[in-house]
UniProtKB/TrEMBL annotation:
Domain of life of the organism encoding this protein: Bacteria
Annotated source species: Streptomyces regalis
Lineage: Bacteria, Bacillati, Actinomycetota, Actinomycetes, Kitasatosporales
Keyword terms of this UniProt record: Glycosyltransferase, Transferase
GO molecular function: glycosyltransferase activity
Protein name: Glycosyl transferase
Pfam families for the chain: Glyco_trans_1_4 (PF13692), Glyco_transf_4 (PF13439)
């Protein structure tokens, strides 16, 4: 099978789960003998543009005619079996769908977040869940509240794109891959075509490092942002410290808008270590040495890659009890779920898992089994190829019916 992957890579200054998923799927498919090529743009390249070029970027978000022309020409020349679309913001745009239609090539798309129904894709505003724009043809509340980067001006291109391209997405993609059942439920309720929405969890490569002992720290690994629950974690950890601690430090790995705040909070403490961005090998080692990985997101995560990475290493997770985490983590079996947004509940779960090493070992072993059954490369490949074949068959049938 020849697959052309379409992706706008996120800026490299901050960790991107989407970039990681795309790279891992490309590698997985190639290792299985499929031909995979990539059509991409990089957000890093925006910085090198002229002032006029930078000013034009928002105009390209709803529609980039140059991309349509370039991609359509490539599709006609190379004739891939299927196009797999990931992120199209900000430089590719939904024009990639028109290119697929122009060349008559079926398209599938992985929905990594909620941009189909929410301009910033988070279903969150002011640190709380928000669904004001879900089901609305014109997502005006997002503009009014400045939901993207706290800016009405920056939100406008996303809102326009969602509004004018909604029908194009919903009819131009043969198969959408939802990365959790929780995400699919939200999208179906928003009116997306249920028959085109399939659940395909992200997979995680089998790590070289797995936990051998009880672990030597609690680990937060991810973007340092409000939606990821970083402030919630700091409040919970302060509560833990005030009552004597749990005997192991908290390691915080990552970068993001709250980095300065987190660094200042951790300064001078011997129970917290901020280690910044880690490379993939360092991430694996940090996870394998953990008592537990903490994922306290306040937004409704569509998946949660770090949760599955922990499971693969035989490490239990303490996660917020909402969104996709509820289907990834079996409470009391593969990890612990805390009440979302509540520091006291998060602190209680951390204390429990740190105080009971035997429970942590049992949960870690159960987490590893769960990984092998649902999130291994073999399972990921099977579901990926099945989705491609369904899309190709669907396109063939629709073309046959139109004759």
């Amino acid at each position: 099978m020849y697959v052309l992957v379409v992706h706008n890579r996120y800026a490299s200054a901050q960790p991107s789960g989407e970039n990681k998923v795309v790279d891992q799927e490309v590698e997985l498919l190639r290792a299985a003998g499929h031909r995979v090529e990539v059509f991409e743009r990089r957000s890093d390249d925006i910085a090198a543009r002229s002032l006029l070029g930078k000013a034009a970027v928002p105009l390209l978000v709803p529609w980039n005619p140059g991309v349509r022309k370039e991609l359509a020409a490539r599709l006609r020349a190379e004739r891939p079996d299927v196009v797999h679309i990931h992120n199209v913001f900000p430089l590719l745009s939904p024009a990639v769908l028109a290119a697929c239609a122009d060349a008559g090539v079926p398209a599938v798309a992985t929905l990594h977040n909620y941009t189909q129904v929410c301009p910033p894709g988070t279903l969150q505003r002011d640190g709380r869940p928000c669904t004001e724009c879900v089901g609305s043809a014109a997502p005006l509340p997002a503009v009014r509240h400045g939901c993207y980067r706290n800016s009405r001006l920056a939100t406008v291109p996303l809102a326009v794109s969602l509004s004018v391209n909604r029908r194009r997405w919903w009819t131009g993609v043969e198969r959408f891959f939802c990365i959790s059942a929780a995400q699919r439920d939200v999208l179906v309720q928003a009116g997306m075509p249920a028959e085109r929405l399939a659940v395909k969890h992200n997979f995680v490569p089998d790590p070289d490092d797995r936990r051998a002992g009880a672990g030597e720290h609690l680990l937060y690994l991810g973007r340092l942002a409000e939606a990821k629950g970083v402030r919630l974690l700091m409040a919970a950890w302060d509560e833990i410290a005030a009552s004597g601690g749990v005997g192991v430090p908290l390691v915080i790995a990552g970068a993001g808008p709250l980095e300065r705040e987190v660094t200042a909070w951790a300064a001078g403490r011997d129970d917290v270590r901020c280690v910044g961005l880690l490379d993939p090998a360092e991430c694996q080692k940090a996870i394998a040495r953990s008592v537990a990985v903490v994922a306290p997101s306040t937004w409704l995560e569509a998946f949660g890659l770090v949760v599955v990475e922990a499971m693969a290493a035989g490490v239990p997770v303490v996660a917020a009890g909402h969104g996709a985490f509820v289907e990834l983590v079996e409470d009391g079996v593969t990890g612990l779920l805390h009440r979302p947004g509540e520091p006291a509940s998060l602190a209680s779960c951390i204390r429990r898992i740190a105080a009971e090493p035997a429970l942590g070992r049992e949960m870690g072993q159960a987490a590893r089994r769960r990984y092998e059954q649902g999130f291994s490369p073999a399972v990921g490949l099977e579901r990926l190829v099945e989705g491609y074949r369904t899309a190709i068959a669907g396109r063939t049938e629709s073309m046959g019916g139109s004759r």
